[in-house]
């Protein structure tokens, strides 16, 4: 019943490393192959059709690496492409980050008033409100597209007066709506946690999908028995569709202290 | 000798509309076909190889529209892909935005000390220093990668405290270097002109490539006689590789008052 094959993790670029980190902490013996679609990032401003096409190409590339399951570690791709992925690759267990995040948000909120900060594409998909209301049909979800926060994190400016000015303006756009839970609905946003905290009452719960997604994957491995048999020895692999050097450099922002030595470049277009 | 075919204008997305606007003002009788590669934007953080591949696909798509010349209205693509384009399409006259901008900067600066604000890819290419030094071999060019300014403009936040905080931090990174000309080395940046002005002495010259590029194209048409014969009647066409509705909506930021009604979606990959 054991399964020594690696877990595939896919993101448009770097943000998925926050999910990868949580997966490694929850599943220290497993091996991982991470694919960042850096030739086409970001996904947050692109259409559902295009994001689905890109995600499917990435998933097929990871299937070539003989993965046992796929984690779509990108909110936009989870929101827009997960049904398409499951349909195209019915044999491959696929986990997105939206459903676990939505569940955690529904559980964290007492009032049912929840704010979701996400990309334009995730907001447009309405995936968070739909999934949150599965757990709490009375929930009222306010979604806010915050594309600029992605660029802010990639520039490494997650703290300081610029980050505060930008976050402050986004919060002003909520027009004083009250809420007791806030979803960091993009894998870049956990890096802005400290800055976001400054604008919220201490009792507001901050929810990110990384930990709950890792838990969902662990539960699946528990249920299916598909754990890796032997403790991990091999290094995790990192594949990107463009600019491996840039990935290596920026990965340090998402994984402080981690040693990402080998980043391989692969062709983004596997099948069309 | 007249040539009634349209002029092709290509950009990774929306920024090239600032160049399109200058072209229309300089050449009011000409017809234009604009292609924005919105499925793969932005180019500023991608490798020279990938940008060259994308630019070549876009140029070939515009050749199918029977254009008489091509304007690469994107600094990153001009910096990284222009030699490759000219080699692959030797029959097609190609104009980039770097060379005209570099010439304008060299002429605007008395001291020879020039700052270039650009994307990461444009800075890495060193295209501005190289071209500026063709006109003034003594010039000292300080380049600064400002990726976040692109996202700021696309969010529509080109004025206000957030824009000022971000611009201020970039200027701090210049460590007090003195200069008397500043190049807006990305087609998004002219929209930030008012904000950037606030941080500079009144005598500092701001240079953008749009007007000088339009002049270079006009000079070519004068020299070759390939002007359009009859005054324009047909509407300009706008092609995008993804999300036409988003393009139509955001285009208003770049072309206030313009009526961009029909935006057509086309396949980004023409040949591989």
List keywords for this structure.
Rossmann fold, 2 domains, 272 residues, 11 helices, six-stranded parallel beta sheet, alpha/beta, homodimer
Explain what this protein looks like in three dimensions.
Two copies of one chain form a homodimer. By secondary structure, chain A is of the alpha/beta class. Chain A folds into two domains: 7-96 and 211-265, Rossmann fold; 98-208, 3-Layer(aba) Sandwich (Rossmann fold), CATH 3.40.50. In chain A, 43% of the residues lie in helices and 16% in strands. The first copy, chain A, contains eleven helices and ten strands. Chain A has helices at residues 17-26, 48-63, 75-88, 98-108, 120-125, 127-135, 147-154, 161-172, 193-197, 209-224, 244-254, and strands at 7-11, 32-36, 69-72, 94-95, 113-118, 140-145, 181-185, 205-208, 237-240, 263-265. In chain A, strands 4-3-1-2-9-10 form a six-stranded parallel β-sheet, sandwiched between helices. In chain A, helix 4 packs across helix 6 (127-135) and helix 4 (98-108) crosses helix 10. The radius of gyration of chain A is 18 Å and the shape is globular. The first copy, chain A, starts with 6 loop residues before the first strand and ends in a 7-residue tail after the last strand. The model of chain A has no long low-confidence stretch (mean pLDDT 95). The A-B interface holds A 38-41, 45-47, 50, 120, 147-148, 150-152, 154-155, 157, 160-162, 165-166, 169, 242-243, 246, 269, 272 and B 38-41, 45-47, 50, 120, 147-148, 150-152, 154-155, 157, 160-162, 165-166, 169, 242-243, 246, 269, 272.
